[in-house]
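>> received
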Amino acid sequence: MKYPEYIKDGETIGLVAPSFGCAFEPYKSCLDSAISRFEKMGYKLIEGPNCRKSDGIGISSSPENCGKELTDFYCSGDNQMLITCGGGELMCETLDYVDFEKIKAAKPKWYMGYSDNTNFTFLLNTICDVASIYGPSIGAFGMDKLEPALEDAIGVFTGEKQRFQVMINLK
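>> returned
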């Protein structure tokens, strides 16, 4: 399996909405807060065209637009990783419009999302042989104080957290 390079200070995170977009509250405010957090950490962020849309039926935009956004942003040299806007319900409809051959040929990059994004994280692993992160979407990073799990997620794509320990309390 290919592992993407870790994200460095000053690099760019692409935001995509292949399922759920941040078109209304509280998601818009969470997105804005998360963008501010990552910018203060030294990263640049680029929003995909569907991030703040809700013109699709059950997804941010049409399946065609969502599949194109995902393919274009994954294959772009303008960002070094992708984080999704949210989970959702109908990402399965976008898969016919994702160019997996193009993605497989592209330089591997981290893709992080959960829930409906399993439609891509699983296929990125199995079809393209690239590691991905089943983890929080961008809005979760908008809270005032990050929970340890969110700090861990950042540690995974920055390379600061390469080894995980599981502690089981047996009493």
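>> The first strand starts at residue 12 and ends at 16.
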